[in-house]
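Handoff note, outgoing to incoming analyst
You'll be picking up this chain. Sequence as last confirmed:
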Amino acid sequence: MQRETSPSVEKQWFAIYTRSRYEKKIVIKLQEQGYEAWLPLLKTMRQWSDRKKMVEVPLFNSYVFIHTDLLKARSVISQVEGAVYIVSFSGQPAVIPDKQIEDLKLLLNSSEKFEISFNEFMFGDHIEVIRGSLKGLHGMFVHYKGRKRILMQIEAINQQLLIDINPAFVKKMHTEKVHT
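Most recent structure output, in case you need it:
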């Protein structure tokens, strides 16, 4: 006999909004408490007056991700110093689809160039990468600053990434059109 899993007990990804510069501390604390927590990091060159150094900085400032059930997600804020709130919509914690987390991890483990976009776009076709190191990644095909790129959205935290892409490496995904 198969047991039905309640949505409140099923593990899902949630975003935690943090105090400024608390991201790494929070992830460590959550992991120490047995949670699966993830902080996407980006390697970047920082320059001081006397030296340059490669450092890892959060890809999304003030956001960390936690894979847990809904009940634990709600209680985690009171358990960890620096955690401000679970990103929510209409009073309910916003679930981040597993595919978006997988795509983000795929991107960060690749050698592809990308940048964070704070601009609003007119969205184009839904696409899937079919060749190269980002094979399997889903996004929107856009032109930005004269270059062809994929727009990848992490909707729950209202963040967007622009990834340089060779148009030959993508295919259009079929979506059903709704007739009104």
